[in-house]
Design a protein that fits this description.
The complex is a heterodimer of chains A (435) and B (220). With 435 residues, chain A is α+β, with helices and mostly antiparallel strands. Chain A is built from eight helices and twelve strands. In chain A, 53% of the residues lie in helices and 19% in strands. The chains are: A alpha+beta (435), B alpha/beta (220). At the A-B interface, helix 4 and helix 5 of A face helix 1 of B.
Chain lengths: 435, 220
């Protein structure tokens, strides 16, 4: 029974019923106390009002009249124990020498007895306690019956009120149910009860984050589709040229071009995959201690052949020992992309230097080249996906730096682009926080 | 026919140029917006093939300033932007046609021919002067019903002349129609082709206007 409405109804009604019973009990005991006081006073009065010398048997009618009123019983006997008078011969009470008030258990139930010594006679006035209890119970019941009769009415009222109170939840559920994955605009927050507002607020927050994530995914897919079109166009054109080729020589040239186009498309797809894998929060992170100096040595040796091909002096300068917590493969891709970029943009005969040093609480990986550098106004944009500053002259997917940025973000590292000193050239500094 | 291709992508540019050259067009290729404007100012082209996402000056800006100058050159946009709104924007900016990447070389050539046809005020795809019939799509040539075989350059030359009968082309103009940049043109190349055309099509089809150039006279 996991319904707020039913649970509330059950608890409220049980509570009410308990309260009613408690009230009944209280009325009962209070009434009983009062009745005791009142009737005890009565007993005393009765005893006092009896004629002390009327010692003949009372006429039965009078006795009956007397006994019928609240069950009083009067009995008198003399100091010798001789019974002088019984108002109710049927219900004889034990003779009690005890004077004053006492409570006596008899076969006829419990009695309240008042005895008084009047000259030589003992006058006993008694009343069954049941009379008093009945009176108290009657009073209590009288008070409780309307309350008990009200319980079902209250139940219905509670049921309806809770239903009404929970209506905003129903409306919200309905509004959410009608949503398509695309409609992520926030739910209206005004006019909501205080209890539901935090929930809706949190939901709206989530919807907002979802909408932004979805938006960036959509933009990414659109960008990717657009970017894939370029190498695919090249491939299609190259295929047609290959088909048209008349001589073996032409065909060979056409196939060589086609191979170039194909590897370019494959490279773009590979980069897209890498980027998608490095999107923040996509893959569970498997961070382990990474020796940055070792990483730098590895990447520099990986790219040494490419640099030699272009007659570029690639080398590792100062490499202090620094260990950060990270994803080794991702960091290798990151540094690889930066070194690859540096080699691509540096003219033949230039230099690319990789260095690692500690600065305060940071480990700084530095890649400096003697290429043309990046103008101040372009430095923010180069990390955008598919942004290519010099598309016509250097081949590339436009994703390299976007991947670098994603990996750096995952490692809480910051990237600064700067002019190499002495210029010209670009200096990229990736700063990792040290634990 | 001489075309200017503006395409920043190395592979696409090379392939389009190679393909169109095989179809008998002379193609000049530049890779950014500024270079395109320079080329348009210094040379005369029959058609402009324009990519939109260009470095230095965007394709649509090149197109806009071209049209502002009153240049009526046919413009075919080649782009990866395929949204309806992009096409509308391109056509409204003054383009004559819009081709979305990836495209087919045959279709590109056909669209260029269609643009050239419209430019010369003809609806008939086949060029006819007297009993000479030229089909620019297939490069088929018939004279008095007989099929004649011409090389790509010969066809380009007779196509230029017969396409606008009565118009005199100078030798330089004809050279430009035959060659893009980077070709060494021998000083007597046009004469060589004219000679060969006269041999195949009859001596009196192409007239020599002394000191000015060549023309195919309008047929009565």
């Amino acid at each position: 029974m996991n319904s707020i409405r039913r649970r509330l109804l059950l608890w409220l009604l049980s509570g009410l019923a308990l309260a009613v019973v408690a009230a009944g009990a209280r009325i009962y005991t209070q009434t009983l106390d009062e009745a005791n006081e009142l009737f005890d006073y009565h007993l005393k009065q009765m005893a006092a009002s009896l004629p002390s010398d009327a010692f003949g048997p009372l006429p039965p009618s009078s006795a009956a009249a007397m006994g019928s009123v609240n069950g009083f019983v009067v009995q008198i006997w003399d100091r010798n124990g001789l019974e002088l008078y019984f108002s109710q011969p049927a219900s004889k009470l034990p003779q009690r020498a005890e004077l004053g008030f006492s409570t006596v258990d008899t076969p006829n139930g419990r009695w309240r007895v008042y005895s008084v010594l009047e000259r030589n006679n003992v006058i006993q006035v008694a009343q069954p306690m049941s009379v008093r209890r009945d009176l108290a119970a009657g009073m209590a019941l009288h008070a409780l019956v309307p309350l008990l009769a009200l319980l079902p009415v209250l139940g219905i009222l509670i049921w309806l009120t809770i239903g009404r109170g929970l209506q905003p939840l129903d409306r919200m559920a309905e509004a959410l149910g009608r949503r398509t994955p695309d409609s992520l605009d926030p739910l209206p927050e005004e006019g909501l009860p205080n209890e539901i507002q935090p929930l809706v607020h949190a939901l709206n927050d989530l919807l907002g984050r979802l909408a932004r994530a979805l938006e960036s995914q959509k933009a990414f897919v659109a960008d990717a589709a657009h970017e894939l079109r370029t190498p695919l166009t090249a491939v299609q054109l190259q295929i047609q040229l290959a088909q048209r080729a008349q001589t073996g020589e032409e065909r060979e040239a056409a196939f060589a071009r086609l191979k170039g186009g194909q590897s370019r498309a494959a490279h773009l797809v590979q980069q897209l995959l890498t980027l998608a894998r490095q999107e923040p929060g996509v893959a569970p992170q498997t961070f382990a201690p990474v020796d940055l100096a070792e990483l730098a040595r590895l990447v520099v040796s990986e790219y040494a052949p490419l640099a030699a091909d272009k007659n570029i002096d690639l080398g590792l300068g100062r490499a202090e020992h620094a260990s950060v917590s990270g994803d080794f493969e991702a960091l290798r891709v990151m540094l690889g992309n930066l070194v690859d970029n540096a080699i691509r943009y540096t003219p033949a005969g230039g230099t690319v230097d990789v260095a690692l040093h500690l600065s305060g609480r940071e480990a700084v990986l530095e890649i400096a080249d003697t290429g043309p550098g990046i103008p101040q106004e372009d430095r923010a944009r180069v990390f955008d996906r598919f942004y290519r500053r010099d598309a016509a002259h250097v081949a590339g997917s436009g994703l390299g730096l976007a991947i670098v940025k994603n990996i750096a973000d995952r490692h809480h590292a910051s990237i600064v682009l700067d002019n190499r000193t002495p210029g010209p050239g670009l200096r990229v500094a990736v700063s990792f926080p040290l634990a | 026919m001489r075309l200017l291709l503006v395409e920043d992508d190395q592979m696409i540019g090379e392939s389009v140029r190679a393909g169109l050259q095989q179809d008998g067009f002379a193609v000049d290729w530049v890779q950014d917006g500024r270079a395109a404007e320079l080329a348009l100012e210094t040379n005369s082209y029959d058609t402009l093939l324009l990519d939109l996402g260009l470095p230095r000056k965007a394709g649509l800006d090149v197109l806009a300033s071209l049209r502002r100058r009153g240049d009526a050159i046919p413009v075919l946009i080649l782009t990866a932007r395929d949204a309806i709104s992009d096409r509308v924007k391109g056509l409204d900016a003054g383009a004559d046609d819009y081709l979305v990447k990836p495209f087919d070389l045959e279709e590109l050539a056909a669209r260029v021919r269609a643009l050239l046809r419209r430019k010369s005020g003809r609806a008939d795809p086949v060029v006819q002067v007297g009993s000479l019939i030229l089909n620019p799509a297939t490069h088929e040539v018939t004279l008095e019903g007989k099929s004649i075989s011409l090389s790509a350059r010969e066809f380009a030359l007779i196509h230029a002349l017969a396409g606008r009968p009565g118009v005199v082309y100078s030798r330089t103009q004809l050279e430009e129609k035959l060659y893009g940049w980077g070709h060494e043109v021998e000083s007597n190349t046009v004469e060589v082709y004219i000679h060969s055309l006269r041999r195949k099509l009859g001596a009196d089809l192409i007239h020599n206007v002394r000191g000015v150039g060549y023309m195919v006279p309008k047929q009565p």
